Amino acid sequence: MDGVVTDLIAVGLKRGSDELLSSGIINGPFTMNSSTPLAGVYANGNDNKKFKGDRPPCSPSRVLHLRKIPSDVTEAEVISLGLPFGKVTNLLMLKGKSQAFLEMASEEAAVTMVNYYTPVTPHLRSQPVFIQYSNHRELKTDNLPNQARAQAALQTVQSGSLALPGAPTNEGTILPGQSPVLRIIIENLFYPVTLEVLHQIFSKFGTVLKIITFTKNNQFQALLQYADPLNAHYAKMALDGQNIYNACCTLRIDFSKLTSLNVKYNNDKSRDFTRLDLPTGDGQPSLEPPMAAAFGAPGIISSPYAGAAGFAPAIGFPQAAGLSVPAGLGPGALGPLAITSSAVTGRMAIPGAGGMPGNSVLLVTNLNPDLITPHGLFILFGVYGDVHRVKIMFNKKENALVQMADANQAQLAMNHLSGQRLYGKVLRATLSKHQAVQLPREGQEDQGLTKDFSNSPLHRFKKPGSKNFQNIFPPSATLHLSNIPPSVTVDDLKNLFTEAGCSVKAFKFFQKDRKMALIQLGSVEEAIQALIELHNHDLGENHHLRVSFSKSTI
What we know:
It is a single chain. By secondary structure, the protein is α+β, with helices and mostly antiparallel strands. It has 4 domains: 2-158, CATH 3.30.70.330; 181-349, CATH 3.30.70.330; 361-452, CATH 3.30.70.330; 476-549, CATH 3.30.70.330. The chain contains 12 helices and 29 strands. The strands form 9 sheets. Strands 10-11-7-9-8-12 form a 6-stranded antiparallel sheet. Helix 4 (107-117) packs across helix 10 (407-417) and helix 9 crosses helix 12.
């Protein structure tokens, strides 16, 4: 019990801890997650004292612990933080302690949420909020008073009719056949909004495939296509009516009648993120005169932005060479944007990249040195992009560098894989300071730890416009199998995964296409390891098994 009390003190819950534990709300001790921005800062309720040693990070859990929430925040606003990442199944508000517990439907959704909010601190009502894994596997709130509001808010979310702050109150459930394409109009345009800025904001809600920007009727507009209509639905709910910058650049969002965008050029005005081979075009279309005047008006933007504060949902820029814009107000923060050069060109660094735009190299740590190989990392990270090179550190084999084809793929892989368990250890991925993985010099001892995969036939995204771009999902216990020859039976595939050390919970072939199947394994970790070991497995008849994570369950 002493250990439990110590952990409760560490997160500022000393008072009332016995009541929480005895009520059966949550089972087990609270633990600080040392990977979060304020890990190791709170001791005995004093923000100024530090732990003498780092606490080990919590293992991923579908229950998340939120600290420093504003006292006047609503249940809907807290739920809005989790909504883009998946279904929220329970909520416990501890307003007197400025804390809350959020239970997601799956551990994968919680991992994706923590990975997103670790480098980009979310805000509620312009106040930073800190999110970490809880040691509790579920919330038990049935016997608690004052849970009616939380349950009502959750039921509203599950019915698909949650009215987030700034969203229309008549927002209904997603309609069958609803378009994955959004039409975006930027009103009150006092500061430039670039394609890169739109991509960063809207990527929070899912994989953005294409963006086209243009001006019409003296208004800056964009068409943005998601991989899934549900992503478009959530983005519209959360962002419609919000300001990108404080008191200006208001987003007006509708569903487009188009169901797919045709992008001819990859440049500052249009981008197809599934087609890296597109030309840039002969020249950039010029802005209409009123728009150009707004961008270049004296006194509005006269020098590069030096940095950025939180998008909360307004993005506030601090002290930019004489230009002071306070951070915007509002719930549902989308995290900071790191602007590293002129705001007019909109060149942007990915959060966590240390100010280096376009970084495609990841530093992967806490690997199991006895089991991990360059080929294993190539297969795993190759789910989220084309891996060019992998280097396992010679003197510290639990660390590795993974070079992706581009910065977008690196960010995608980091968001989905950091925090996942692999061979018994929790993998961590961050953007590296290195711009490329160097191959060993001739004669240099390497033990085969550095591999070049740039010409591998196993790249999933090499083909322009590949459908694989639309099938990128977080790691899950259910795997999608394809390229199965007719002679291979259910038992053959079950035995294959069992022999690889997996426990098969369910299996089914696709009704219309027996070349594909779903297989559900005992855990996400089992599925990750099975993907590494069995992707490209030779099934005979010139068929090699293709394995990816599924968004469906059996």
